[in-house]
Amino acid sequence: MKDHLQTKDWGLGLEKEHLIIAGPCSAETPEQVEKVCQDMLAANAVPDIFRAGIWKPRTRPGSFEGIGEDGLKWMEIVRHHLNIPITTEVGNTAHVEMALKHGVDVLWIGARTTVNPFAVQEIAEALRGVDIPVMVKNPMNPDLELWIGALERMHAVGIEKLAAIHRGFSDAYDKKFRNKPNWSMPIHLKRIWKGMQVINDPSHIVGNRAGILETAQRAINFGLDGLMIETHHDPDNAWSDAKQQVTPKQLKDILDSIDFKHPLQTEHPSEKLQDLRNAVDHLDDQLLDLLSERFSIIDQIGAHKREHNLTVFQADRWKQVMDSRTQKGIAKNLSEKFMKELLYCIHEESVKRQEKKLREEVPTKKTI
Ligand SMILES: C=C(O[C@@H]1C=C(C(=O)O)C=C[C@H]1O)C(=O)O
User: Fold this and answer.
1) Which positions fall inside the Chorismate mutase domain (predicted)?
2) Is 96:90 a contact under the CB 8 Å cutoff?
3) Complex ipTM, two decimals?
4) Closest among 144, 135, 222 to 189, alpha carbons compared
5) Cα–Cα distance between 228 and 249 in angstroms, integer?
6) How far apart (Å, rounded) are the C-alpha atoms in residues 144 and 186?
7) What is the C-alpha R_g of the chain?
8) Which DSSP state fits 135?
9) 32: containing domain
10) Atom of ligand 1 nearest to the CA of 298
């Protein structure tokens, strides 16, 4: 993947291994901005970057849609009290112009914008030639390509200072989260785009302040690179996202409670870890041998089906395989979800191979 600059090279003094971004969901009044800063200082909870929403994309009209440009002027208050970089969301070119005019240090692209390549491209064009870091939130839907695509659009206009934000994915059925985490998405992003830092936003994932610590800890356990936590001096009376904001004191407690983990220095794994990894290598070899053996028998069954004019998919047999293996797996401490995914994957390959068998060697019939 393309070279980009990590947060430590943004020229903003962001040297820490885990970046903490905090501040209110929305800037509401100059007094509110000042009070949040004062309470952050008093609670010893000054983040690395201060966040404040100036324009709020709301699901339905009628709720508070952000204070607009006036709020950008209040960012001077933050600079005065905390002397830290400031970030806000931009959703169109007018936002970009105003944010640049008022010296916002870091921009972020919101989830509702990331879904729309036209909107992302317009913002990218407005940023061509500008030296400013941009953080891209995941799109509303769990589409990794769209997330990477938005980062690439920024990179293509010369934005090298890039990071991603994992804020969860909209899900009509799963009501446990406001936005379902789908942890595999940020992990895949980090795997595909080497060195891409992903900041976790537990506030938007959980949707209520009680669950923030648990989700934040999981993000750190998985190896994400920082946290963005909505923080307000009086969360219950916040003009937006009242349920999920925490006070600076609560932010401090959350950060103090998190057990921050560190990436492994891959060059020097301990002897113990090396032994365990060798054992995994050996087992993986055996797994591959077994899979290859299974598929060679599947091919023989395919040949048999071809000779006897049988269909590839056999529902009764498949149900029996699925049910019995799932139960056996559960008894061996493997999760039901994992067993089902594994078996679906194996079955898909089986039927593909057999169908190919049916096509490739049509038995010669004497037609003349
Ligand atoms: C292997 C067969 O073909 C298909 C593949 C199966 C499998 O992978 O276990 C099971 C049932 C069939 O849908 C079979 O009919 O036995």
Assistant:
1) 267-358
2) yes
3) 0.95
4) 144
5) 16
6) 8
7) 26
8) E
9) 7-257
10) 1
CA of 354, closest atom in ligand 1: 3
- Tell me the CB-side half-sphere exposure of residue 153, using CA atoms within 13 A: 24
CB neighbourhood size of 23 (10 A): 30
- Convert the pLDDT of each residue in 29-45 to its tens digit: 999 999 999 999 999 99
- pLDDT score, position 363: 56
**How many angstroms is it from 359 CA to the middle of ligand 1?**
17
With a 6 Å cutoff on the Cβ, whether 305 touches ligand 1 is no
From the CA of 221, how far away is ligand 1's center (Å)?
A: 39
244 and 298 inside one domain: no
Q: Give yes or no for residue 314 CB within 6 A of ligand 1.
A: yes
Beta bridge partners of 90: 109
Whether 351 lines ligand 1, by a CB cut-off of 6 Å, is yes
**For ligand 1, what atom is nearest to the CA of residue 349?**
8
From 190, 222, 257, give the residue that closes a domain.
257
Whether residue 350 has its Cβ less than 6 Å from ligand 1? yes
Domain count, the chain: 2
CA distance 35 to 192: 41
The answer to whether residue 2 is domain-embedded is: no
Kindly give the distance from the C-alpha atom of residue 292 to the centroid of ligand 1, in angstroms, as a whole number: 15
Q: Which two tokens stand for residue 163?
A: 């990071």
Are 132 and 281 contained in the same domain?
A: no
224 and 308 together in one domain: no
Residue from 157, 162, 169 nearest 136 by CA = 162
In angstroms, the CA 289 to CA 284 distance is 9
- Residue 158 CB neighbour total at 10 angstroms: 12
Q: Which of 290, 291, 295, 298 to mutate to test the pocket of ligand 1 (most atoms within 8 A of CB)?
A: 298
Q: What is the DSSP letter of 363?
A: P
- Whether the pLDDT of residue 366 is over 70: the answer is no
Q: What is the pTM of this model?
A: 0.87
Q: What are phi and psi of 181, to 5 degrees?
A: -70, -35
Q: What is the mean pLDDT of residues 215-237?
A: 97
Classify residue 333: in a domain, yes or no.
Answer: yes
CB of 301 shorter than 6 A to ligand 1: yes
